[in-house]
Design goal:
168 residues; two-stranded antiparallel ribbon; 60% helix; Rna Polymerase Sigma Factor, Chain: A; 6 helices; 2 domains; 8% strand; mainly alpha
Length: 168
């Protein structure tokens, strides 16, 4: 026999434990998906989903049928998401090891979605060779130095002027 969400919640409030189990099975996946779309973290979504149903258990004595159960449940989830996002406001990074939900219901790490940031080895060698050639060309001019800590080109004016005077 199919019972409405509101009827199940009222029965749970009155002591029927099986009613909560039915509600949990009905709404676990939709609530988890809603929370995940909001917080974008699989681990946080699972924690907040569990907290949502824990709050349903804690608030069962206060439940009244003034709105649909589904509305009440998702409002609890939304409030928890808002609180979490407010706390995360100052966190500006994601861990590459954070699991994310994939379409096949398996967890995949965020780093699997990001391309390899390491440089192409051929370009790395070519860049190094070019840098060496440029440094050799500058060294042949004399008086110009590269400061490696800032990689800023610097000319010793007095040295250049003294070399210019010697040639004349």
């Amino acid at each position: 026999m199919w019972r409405s969400d509101e009827e199940l919640m009222l029965n749970y409030r009155d002591g029927e434990e099986d009613a909560f189990e039915m509600l949990y099975r009905r709404y676990e996946k939709p609530v988890l998906a809603f929370i995940y779309r909001t917080v974008m973290s699989a681990a946080d979504a699972e924690d907040l989903c569990q907290e949502t149903f824990f709050r349903v258990v804690r608030g069962k004595k206060r439940y009244q049928v003034t709105a649909k159960f589904k509305t009440w449940l998702f409002q609890i989830a939304l409030n928890l998401c808002r609180d979490k996002l407010r706390r995360m406001k100052y966190r500006s990074h994601l861990s590459l090891n954070d699991p994310v939900l994939s379409q096949d219901d398996g967890n995949v790490e965020l780093q699997d979605f990001i391309s390899n940031p390491s440089p192409d080895p051929i370009k790395y060698v070519e860049t190094g060779e070019l840098k060496t050639l440029v440094q050799q060309a500058i060294a042949s001019l004399g008086g110009i130095k590269i400061r490696p800590e800032a990689e800023i080109w610097e000319a010793d004016v007095s040295e250049l002027l003294s070399k210019g005077e010697k040639k004349q």
